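hiii so um. not sure if this is the right channel but i have a protein structure encoded as tokens and i wanna go backwards to a sequence. like what aa goes where. can anyone help
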């Protein structure tokens, strides 16, 4: 795709504008959003993504349109998986429900920044070294196997990483939340609040998920513009989705397995793609490997929709039907404080 610079700038301006509206208009006051509020904004973001995809299809052709939709669906699925850990983190640190929206907002902004950096680094690496697809593919296959072995049990466990432990030691924190403030003064000293630790936890979690999501989408499209926009649309509305189906997420028992199959599929696709552009001297003398099959984008899109569809239906059947899932969705995300 030949993307003019003004299109890049316009996309960046619109993205920043939406973030500013999210921060200063929607999130102008800490509150637990109503079902009507989250539903309205979620419909807006999903409709915007669909319209953008149709625009890519119209102006750039079916190949690029398919790449965007495949990338967006994949990133959206990985972002939903991200919500599992968000729920666990907010519950572990006992974040009051009226402050969860602000915490999620900051976490999503950090995710956008970090993914933007990874996208730029990934694009530069691909332009210089086509063999990087071997590494991307191997990493995704390894991640898929690891995710399949851990299964749903991994969603119920969360261990603080070294960065969080360092922050807890480096910044003495109060036990009480002071609104959404990160620092407050107590006894003449400036101390952190638990909200700062929550932000660190969300940010480091976003970083780990970016390590999976960026190689995954580069397995579906090599166009940095489509990679960027697919990630933006996947993250936009994620906060609303958290409040809309937070309780439902815990009932998607097979999501981890579905994502494992999805990442494994894309990993294999990346390896096959690398074989077509093989530059490694110890493989076929550095010549392209002709016998390697090529997976077209339409087949990738069908596989992604099929995998996610089977995963969702199987989870609904195990959960006992749609009615039970709807009840859990209305209950919203759980918090440890709900048990107090």
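sure thing!! here u go:
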């Amino acid at each position: 795709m030949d993307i003019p610079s003004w299109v890049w700038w316009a996309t960046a301006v619109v993205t920043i504008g939406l973030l500013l509206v999210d921060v200063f208009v929607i999130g102008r006051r800490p509150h637990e959003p109503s079902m009507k509020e989250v539903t309205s904004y979620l419909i807006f973001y999903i409709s915007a993504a669909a319209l953008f995809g149709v625009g890519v299809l119209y102006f750039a052709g079916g190949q690029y349109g398919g790449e965007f939709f495949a990338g967006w669906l994949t990133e959206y699925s990985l972002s939903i998986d991200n919500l599992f850990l968000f729920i666990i983190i907010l519950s572990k640190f006992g974040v009051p429900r009226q402050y969860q929206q602000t915490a999620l907002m900051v976490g999503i902004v950090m995710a956008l920044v970090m993914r933007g950096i990874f996208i730029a680094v990934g694009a530069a690496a691909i332009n210089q070294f086509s063999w990087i697809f071997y590494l991307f593919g191997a990493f995704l296959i390894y991640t898929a196997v690891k995710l399949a072995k851990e299964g749903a049990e991994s969603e119920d466990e969360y261990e603080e990483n070294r960065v969080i432990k360092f922050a807890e030691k480096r910044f003495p924190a109060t036990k009480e939340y002071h609104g959404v403030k990160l620092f407050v003064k107590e006894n003449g000293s400036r101390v952190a609040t638990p909200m700062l630790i929550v932000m660190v936890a969300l940010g480091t979690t976003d970083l780990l998920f970016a390590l999976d999501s960026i190689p995954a989408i580069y397995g579906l499209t090599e166009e940095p513009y489509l990679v960027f926009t697919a990630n933006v649309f996947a993250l936009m509305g994620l906060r609303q989705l958290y409040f809309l189906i937070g309780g439902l997420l815990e009932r998607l028992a097979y999501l981890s397995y579905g994502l494992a199959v999805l990442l494994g599929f894309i990993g294999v696709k990346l390896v096959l793609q690398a074989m077509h552009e093989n530059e490694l001297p110890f493989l076929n003398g550095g010549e392209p490997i002709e016998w390697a099959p090529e997976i077209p984008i339409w087949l990738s899109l069908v596989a992604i929709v099929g995998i996610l569809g089977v995963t969702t239906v199987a989870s609904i059947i195990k959960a006992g039907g749609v009615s039970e899932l709807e009840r859990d969705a209305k209950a919203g995300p759980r918090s440890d404080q709900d048990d107090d």
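oh and Residues 119 and 179 are 34 Å apart (CA to CA).
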